[in-house]
Amino acid sequence: MALINLTGIQPIDYTALADEAKPGEGETIAVPVAQLIEENADLFATAGSVGAIIGTETPFDALGDIVGKIDFAVIEFPAFGDGRGFSLAVRLRKDFGFKGEIRAVGPVIPDQALFLLRAGFDTVEASGERKAAFEAALERFPAFYQSDFGGQVSVAHTRHSAEGQRKAS
User: Fold this and answer.
1) CA diameter of the chain
2) Are 75 and 104 in contact (CB under 8 A)?
3) Which pLDDT tens digit goes with each residue over 51-75?
4) Residue 150, pLDDT score
5) What structural domains and CATH numbers belong to the chain?
6) Average pLDDT, the chain
7) Gyration radius of the chain over CA positions
8) What is the 3 state secondary structure string of 74-98?
9) Contact, 20 vs 49, CB < 8 A?
């Protein structure tokens, strides 16, 4: 697997905590949301940095109790056509103001690179032979017709504001 950096941040190197396993002192771990909710205090007291492994079936409101405590989120895509991971990332960024790394794992494809970036993902785990295709896809379009999670102005908004300025002159 290759780690593709979409935003240029320093990616977090973590260990996925196995069921019933306990983290080492100061260890950087990723834990499934259900386990994180159940063992909340113990995990945060022992580990150095904690991230949540979020499946696309996870109800968004289940993240409310932990999102302020985690340092990163790993969103698992079960299939490349499952868009729920995009929605989770946008909502983490917009509704919770989450500033940590959001990583996509699973069968995402290079054609989704810009959509991942615009939804708030920082990194993607993909097969090594697809790394160049992901990087090329990030350069494909310089402007967009829709705004993104961060409020990037769309082509349509730019065009309409320019027309409005011309009419006012």
Assistant:
1) 68
2) yes
3) 999 999 998 888 988 899 999 999 9
4) 65
5) 2-138 (3.20.20.70)
6) 87
7) 18
8) EEECCCCCCCHHHHHHHHHHHCCCC
9) no
CB atoms within 10 A of CB 45: 9
Higher pLDDT among residues 140 and 79, named by residue? 79
What's the first-to-final CA gap in the chain, in angstroms? 56
- Please say whether the dihedral angle defined by the alpha carbons of residues 108, 134, 30 and 19, taken in this order, is positive or negative: positive
3-state secondary structure the chain: CEEEECCCCCCCCCEECCCCCCCCCCCEEEEEHHHHHHCHHHHHHHCCEEEEEEECCCCHHHHCCCCCCCCEEEEECCCCCCCHHHHHHHHHHHCCCCCCEEEEECCCCHHHHHHHHHHCCCEEEECHHHHHHHHHHCCCCCCCCCCCCCCCCCHHHHHHHHHHHHHHC
Tell me, what amino acid is at 42?
A: D
Report the distance separating Cα 28 and Cα 17, nearest Å. 9
Report strand pairing: 49-55 vs 28-32: parallel
By the 8 A CB rule, do 45 and 21 touch? no
Contact 51, 71 (CB under 8 A): yes
The more confident residue out of 2 and 141 is 2
